[in-house]
Amino acid sequence: MADLAEFTEEGFDPKAWINSRAREASASSSEEPLERYLAEVEMRLQLTAEDIEAALHDLSVQAMRRIPFAVQEIYRLQGDVQGLQDQLGGLASGVKRDASDVTEAVANLQRLDNVKRNMDAACSTLKEATELSGLFVKVRAVTQDATLHLMHKWAHTATW
């Protein structure tokens, strides 16, 4: 039988194909009459066509059997996609909630940092005040000692 690719070509001409087969039969040194050769070619073409038709039928039946499974698989995949979309939506809202919580936590940390800086400044001021207070006490002690010493000296030098 001839190659089936010949029949699939875009510009296939059945008359030209039959004429070329007839020329081949006439050119061969066969004793077979042309009509008999053409009848055999026709029979082979019919048998090949029937084989192709049977193969197409089998493939069609197989495809038809697969359709319900394919539809079922499509529905399952759609359910999976919907589930994944729901999960992503939940994750997205969780991320938004977490971002809001983080923003609030950062604001709290900033307030705490501000309080710490203010407390450090107050502590430093208190330390300076304590040091000044200690100096004032020393100055007062020195001035009182000096005043007492001067008064004592004045009291001994002064005559009434």
Characterization of this structure:
This protein is an all-alpha fold and 160 residues long. The chain contains three helices and no strands. The protein has helices at residues 5-8, 14-27, 34-157. The chain is rod-shaped, with a radius of gyration of 56 Å.
List the helices and strands and how they pair.
Elements: H1 5-8, H2 14-27, H3 34-157
Observed structural traits:
single chain; 160 residues; mainly alpha; rod-shaped
Quick overview of this protein structure:
This protein is mainly α.
Counting DSSP H or I runs of 4 or more residues, the number of helices is 3
Largest sheet: none
Distance between the termini: 161 Å
Number of strands: 0
